[in-house]
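Problem 12. The chain below contains 340 residues. Write out its predicted structure in token notation.
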Amino acid sequence: MCAVSDVIEPSPSLRADKPAAVSAQALADRDTLAVIALERTRMPMVITDPRQHDNPIVLANKAFLHLTGYRAEEVLGRNCRFLQGEATSPAAVAAIREALQQDRQIEIEILNYRKDGSAFWNKLGLSPVHDEGGELLYVFASQIDVTELRKVQGLEAAEHRLLKEVDHRARNVLAIVDGIVRLSRSDNPARYAASIQQRVQALALAHALLAERGWREVALEQVIRQQVDPFRSPSIRLAGPDITVAAHVVQPLALVVHELVNNAVAHGALSAPGGVTLLWEESGGPAPLVDPPTGYGMAIMKGMIERQLRGSLAREWSQTGLKLALSLPGPQGWAPSEAR
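Solution.
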């Protein structure tokens, strides 16, 4: 048996009313039987004496020693706070202290530490023991290692959160797909199917990007570049500050960028053959002329640009001199006038 302190003696509090079935001999040996039962039970237990300074442990059973890794001589005479450690909750400690001060029962889960430093979750139950006159004699403390139970509960909670998150993401994607199907229009079945497919593919690319990032924030440049890179157009340039967007807006935003790029390819700037703009700006010359020159040289240049190069010319005389913008079409727009 684990050592029982000399301060433990039979007391009226341990002689409760006679049970429903007990022999006379067993009743006479009740105190001894109680100690044996406490010692041999599989539940870790200790008894403390609040009448002594710092409420020390006066009895600890084998199950408690096995749970904590201490020897009997290492726990007897010590306050149970030696089981506390770095991550023990101060709130839990305060709740235990308050229950002891108020002489009432308490059941609480607290993070405790074994002798080897390993942590375990302890479901602690404290019960005060009084004599027939109501005086507090001892505090009975039971411990249950609920570490594995808390792990299971944590996994269940995490699984529940994951299922809710998956459901939320699935609903968002289905809502976007529903919008794609409803809002896509075409009189040609093949074009209709192609437009649906392209939009769903854009959505899938965004989904893959989110999965790669662990469904966390994503750089805005990544979202945009993912949708414009397939076109490989030198006319597309990305510039701007580093900005991240929340995970839940990545897919809708990617679809918006997809629509903008496709619209530009079909009807906008990317549908044109391309061209070149030359900017001419003078500075540091004499004071600007009151009447800008409109002589023969300027007329020849304007005619060549408009008729032969199929471009345009914009001129401006400012306080610093001439500013000129010469716009020329791409190679497809430079065909001879006779071929037009």
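Discussion. Strands lie at 45-48, 57-60, 106-113, 119-130, 136-145, 218-219, 244-245, 275-281, 312-318, 321-329. Students who got a different answer should revisit the alignment rule from Section 12.3.
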